[in-house]
Amino acid sequence: MTSQYEQAGVNIHAGEEAVRDIKAIVNQTHDSNVLGGLGGFGAEYELTSEVGHLDQPVLISGTDGVGTKLLLAIEADNHATIGIDLVAMCANDVLAQGAKPLFFLDYIALGELEPGKVMTIVKGIAAGCQQAGLSLIGGEMAEMPGIYRSKDYDLSGFAVGIADKAQLLGSMRVQAGDLLIGLDSSGVHSNGYSLVRKIIQDADLDLKKVYPGLKQPLINDLLTPTKLYYNQVYPLIQTGSLHAAAHITGGGLADNLGRMMPSDLTALIDPESWQVPAIFKVLQTAGKVSLSEMRQVFNMGIGMVLVVPPRCVDDVKAVLEQQQTGYQMIGKVVKRREQPVQYQE
Prior knowledge:
The chain has helices at 4-7, 12-27, 48-51, 69-76, 82-96, 115-132, 193-202, 218-222, 230-238, 252-258, 278-287, 291-297, 313-322, and strands at 34-35, 44-45, 57-65, 100-110, 135-143, 153-164, 179-184, 244-247, 265-269, 302-308, 327-335, 341-343. By secondary structure, it is an alpha+beta fold.
């Protein structure tokens, strides 16, 4: 017999099935600091081994979502990698502060709880956590048919990392003469999708078409997950090779680099120093978007920028090359002119 709660659109049994199915996936992300497992009222993470070698331990947290990229995933019925995007939006921010990522929690709200879809989404979240050095220690699923339509859902996440106060990255360490190393993005990442969707609609783009310059259908390019930079960047943090780092999200290079520039310094960027990926050229041409707006909205092929003192540049480049990480020397830090970030035209 169907309960009144199920008649209202909430299936408790489906929720229980989903939780049961994802436990094994979640457990694979756990390190020895995770206490207990899923099912408690709160997740427990022991810090004893993490703080013992730190003089002034600082917890660094970040929270974010995926934005309207979700609508393309829903339209394509492809949910395999959207969880990676979720983790990356939080983990890359925490990493940019100089933190070692510790643990992650997620929140999934759905119009209709389908255990198979939830399993696919959580597999992506777990994969992202493994790439970011995070333990997935908890989360929440909420079936809310009055807010979301049956196939719709939303994601948000919360990451916590740890660092020694003296080793934090940021504007307080940036100096004139520091060099800017841009790490390649994997594509559009997870920002600017309201504009992407407007371009698709206005230009009547075919999501299944392989446009000139692309190597796969447009939808595949657009759903390519955000790159996680933990394996590339954290070893450089450990060796003290960085003064700062910027995760390039909404606002592009200018806004995100500007957040870590001291009031008397400017990031001078050479836009000719890297090749803009074809996906951005497709969007710009189809949408007739100005170059200045493209730079303001999208990462344009640079997903993270490292601010490196000159004495460490060769060592940083050697590490990145050993890891086969794509990078470009994109500029330098100079005395402030008019803006906190300027393009060298």
